[in-house]
Write a structure and sequence with these properties.
It is built from twelve helices and nine strands. The chain is globular. With about 325 residues, it is α/β, with parallel strands linked by helices. The strands form three sheets. It has a five-stranded parallel sheet with strand order 2-1-3-5-9, with helices on both faces. It has a two-stranded antiparallel sheet with strand order 4-8. Strands 6-7 form a two-stranded antiparallel ribbon. A hairpin with a 2-residue loop joins strand 6 and strand 7. The chain has three domains: about 130 residues, Rossmann fold; about 40 residues, no CATH class; about 100 residues, no CATH class. The N and C termini lie far apart (about 50 Å). Bound molecules: iron/sulfur cluster (2 copies). The site of one iron/sulfur cluster has 14 residues, from loops.
């Protein structure tokens, strides 16, 4: 029997999603036995020309991790979309923009300026900046265009399924591949994980008071958390009430609060707004000044509530006044 061909590809990614595939351990044998890997540039020596040589739709599935930031990434995902019957956004970055999506808080210009001119670890006496084209005796060398904005995969191509997590849990990856091989995939557009909030499956849920009110927020390094009690009830910003389950509560088991990498359930439009509202409803005060002081205890609110989802949010990005005024500036 011919095995279905699959591809793995990474865009603006930390490499953790690729590690997760390797971390399948013994399960990787199940996956490798079931499919024929036709493209996986991180691990196997394939070229883009190998993908171009495939017939349109010849790949059963392409698993794409990472957000989309450059022209090269856009070209590659458009190519994989043509060649694959099914495209899976693999991990929080591909689904929601992820950690690289927090770059949408800054303009392209300020990122390049910081990295090439201002960073303490950089010496750049000539003030050089990367050029997209340069002519050398051997010919013209090119670099991909670095876009103004980080986009989610489905803001660039049509996506069939979403595998959540940063990175996706091994069990969900194996289940997704086997569902694909056995033709058991759910309705297009589905997130391949349980559609309930983490609190519903958390072993500490019984210790979370029904009328929980938080008097002070603490960061994980400021408190020795009781390993048996709800972390939110201990003043740690645990985003379990707003976050999809399916991760097995790995962070909670390590006595660390949920940071929301599994994203929202299907009933939520904007994950960050949902997480913010879940936490804001717990503040024990009706007094504006007290509320402001309590909220002020949450360091980096955007990085806390939109850590994995800024590009997918209703706000999408911050627009710096200078960038907004330029033609073709931030969108
Ligand atoms: S989802 Fe997490 S592990 Fe995967 S590429 Fe993004 S940051 Fe890395
Ligand atoms: S808030 Fe966090 S620790 Fe508390 S029940 Fe929900 S997931 Fe568990």
């Amino acid at each position: 029997m011919t095995k279905p061909k699959v591809a793995f590809y990474w865009c603006a990614s930390c490499g953790g999603c690729e590690e997760a595939v390797v971390d399948l351990g013994e399960d990787v044998l199940t996956v490798v036995e079931a499919v024929d890997i036709a493209f996986w540039p991180v691990a196997l020596d394939f070229k883009v020309s190998d993908v171009e040589a495939l017939a349109d739709g010849e790949l059963a599935a392409a698993f794409v991790n990472g957000a989309v930031r450059t022209s090269e990434q856009q070209e590659m995902v458009e190519l994989l979309r043509r060649k694959a019957g099914t495209v899976v956004a693999f991990g929080a970055c591909a689904w929601l923009g992820g950690i690289p999506g927090l770059a949408n808080l800054s303009s392209r210009e300020s990122i390049l300026r910081h990295v090439y001119h201002e960073s303490a670890s950089v010496q750049n006496g000539d003030g050089a900046m990367p050029q997209e084209q340069i002519d050398v005796p051997e010919g013209r060398m090119t670099l991909p265009h670095f876009d103004e904005t980080v986009r989610t995969l489905d803001q660039v191509i049509d996506v069939d399924y979403y595998l959540p997590g940063c990175p996706p849990p091994v069990g969900l990856i194996t289940a997704a591949v086997m569902a694909l091989v056995e033709g058991r995939l759910p309705e297009k557009g589905s997130v391949l994980a349980p559609d309930v909030a983490l609190c519903a499956e958390c072993p500490r849920a019984e210790t979370k008071p029904e009328d929980l009110k938080v008097k002070a927020f603490k960061r994980p390094h400021e408190v020795l958390a009781d390993p048996d009690l709800c972390l939110l009830a201990q003043g740690l910003v645990c985003l379990g009430p707003a976050t999809r389950s399916g991760c097995g509560g790995a962070c909670i088991a390590a006595n660390m609060p949920c940071t929301g990498c599994m994203g929202p359930t299907s009933r939520v439009i904007d994950y960050g707004a949902k997480a913010l509202s879940a936490i804001a409803s717990l503040l024990e005060s009706q007094d504006e000044e007290e509320i402001a002081a309590l909220a002020g205890q949450i360091a980096d609110p955007v990085g806390t509530f939109y850590r994995y989802s800024l590009p997918a949010s209703l706000l999408h990005r911050r627009v710096e006044p200078a960038a907004a005024a330029r033609p073709g500036g931030a969108s």
